Amino acid sequence: MAIVKENLLYASTHEWCDIQGNTAKVGISDYRQDGLGEIVFVNFPEVGAEVKAGEKLCELESLKAVTEIMSPVSGKVIAVNSELEDAPNAINEDAYAAWLCEIEVTEKGDLMDAAAYEAICE
After folding, report:
1. pTM for the whole thing?
2. SS3 of 93, please?
């Protein structure tokens, strides 16, 4: 069974977001990181880049493959988690603490609550 955090919203492509006001912290779910295996590199979006919900946000490189991460919301990237540059495996250790970027939200994508997300992971 997937580990989910109750207070987050999820995209069907296994990204989570924590929306506070008009800012969303974005990361990948525990279910997604488990499927990727050991993450060795994060290719961040550019700060200031406009992103659209459901479209490519960034890439994660694991020992298995390079994987596109989709944006769960539309808006402008306002920060990236530069701590992951030196320790990308922090995503494997705690996928919900190791956020990828912050987005100034202009539009929410098709998001679901923790219970609905957990149901698609079973």
Report:
1. 0.94
2. helix
